[in-house]
Amino acid sequence: FEPEKGFRLATYAMWWIRASIQEYILRSWSLVKMGTTAAQKKLFFNLRKAKSQISALEDGDLRPDQVKQIATKLGVTEQEVVDMNRRLSGDASLNAPLREDADGGGEWQDWLVDDQDDQESTLAEHEELENRRSALAGALTVLNERERRIFEARRLAEDPVTLEELAAEFGVSRERVRQIEVRAFEKVQKAVVDRVRALEEPEVETV
């Protein structure tokens, strides 16, 4: 407070008391944090009055034309009006029954959808991944040392090694490295297909 500016202490204190009361109301209104921006605070304290001025007294969502009127009047976006109107309706418990007059009708939380995969799908994906890894590991055994080195460097590495680097490493031409890579890929592909086919074929019991 600076008395030399010509304002009374009561006038100065009134605005701070009012701001403190408004801040307390914002914090206590809902478990969900709200009124963090200037537009939200303006809506929180003026939305009900604006709704009454256009006779929008019903509960629930506002009509598009009503949202546009209020947004224009208060200088905020239409989405901010929609969001604040829903927040002012109060908090609702997920454990509340769907129908007040129905016994055993379920709760609101029963309608929540989990976006994550269920355990069965997760297990199936894990098993499929392990089968692919196992099939690839088994298929690599059909390659000789040079073929495996070139195949892994060209097809399995995150940063594939260039043909020039492998040609210098083995003392052959780039074209020869490319040919070895293609042949190794074909051998691995055939080995994987044969392994998967063997896993899918049912075992025949001998009597």
Keywords:
mainly alpha, 207 residues, Arc Repressor Mutant, subunit A, 3 domains
CATH superfamily of the largest domain: Winged helix-like DNA-binding domain superfamily/Winged helix DNA-binding domain
Gyration radius, rounded: 35 Å
Task: Provide the helix percentage.
Answer: 55-70%
The secondary structure category is mainly alpha
Q: Which blocks of ≥5 consecutive residues have pLDDT under 50?
A: none
Indicate the mean pLDDT: 79
Determine the number of helices (DSSP H or I, runs of at least 4 residues).
8
Question: What is the domain total for the residues?
Answer: 3
Classify the fold: give the CATH topology of the largest domain. Answer: Arc Repressor Mutant, subunit A
Distance N to C terminus: 101 Å
CATH class of the largest domain: Mainly Alpha
Structure description:
This protein has 207 residues and is an all-alpha fold. The protein folds into three domains: 30 residues; 57 residues; 82 residues, Arc Repressor Mutant, subunit A. Helices cover 61% and strands 0% of the residues. It contains eight helices and no strands. Helix 2 packs across helix 4, helix 6 crosses helix 8 and helix 7 crosses helix 8. The radius of gyration is 35 Å and the shape is elongated. The N and C termini lie far apart (101 Å).
